[in-house]
Every structure is written in structure tokens, then in C-alpha cells.
Amino acid sequence: MAIVDITVIPIGTKSPSVSDYVVEVQKVLEENKDKINYELTPMSTLIEGEMDDLLHVIKQVHEVPFNHGIERVATNIRIDDRRDKKVRMTDKVNTIQAKLRR
């Protein structure tokens, strides 16, 4: 299982706000919740799942602004793909929290 940190940046919008695009991205993620888990953060979205599913969802998410009339999109993707053991987003956070309590 891998974890992806993704930020989709529509370029050339009429407003500095991009919340309408974020809403549409979240709808795509919700449509794929049978294959992936996701978490919206203030600066990006985290997605976890199997690599093939993640890459498929990333392509769908990248297309969202194009589907709404934007002609240029920059998408930043960071992938954490650990193969020695299965690690979920919550596991990583729980590990840090447990170490802080020591």
C-alpha cells in the first residue's frame, strides 16, 4: 500500500479561490472510495491505496480542472511507497503520537 500527497493547481482562474475545484476533486475521490482512502488537508489531499489504483485516481483528479474549462494545470505528487510492511496514514500518525507520549 502506498500513500500519495497530491495538490492540483489550476492555472489561469478568474479568482484566487480554488475551493470549487477542490470540491470537484473530492467528488472524484468519493467516487473511488471503494479502491482508496483519502483525507483532505488545508494544503493538499492524502490518498492511500494500491499503486495501480492510486495512479488511476491521480489521472482522474488531474483532469478535474481541465473538465471545468481550465487550460493549464500543475499537479504536485509525492508518493510514499513502503514495501517491507503495510503502513496506513493513521499508522504513521499514531507512531509519532506514541513517541511524543514517551
Automatic annotation (TrEMBL):
Domain Thiamine-binding protein stretches: 4-96
UniProt cross-references to InterPro entries, sorted A to Z: MTH1187/YkoF-like, Thiamine_BP, UPF0045_domain
Superkingdom, natural source: Bacteria
PANTHER family per the UniProt record, alphabetical: UPF0045 PROTEIN ECM15 (PTHR33777)
NCBIfam families according to UniProt: MTH1187 family thiamine-binding protein
Family indicated by similarity: Belongs to the UPF0045 family.
Protein name: MTH1187 family thiamine-binding protein
Naturally occurring in which organism (per UniProt): Pseudalkalibacillus berkeleyi
Higher taxonomy: Bacteria, Bacillati, Bacillota, Bacilli, Bacillales
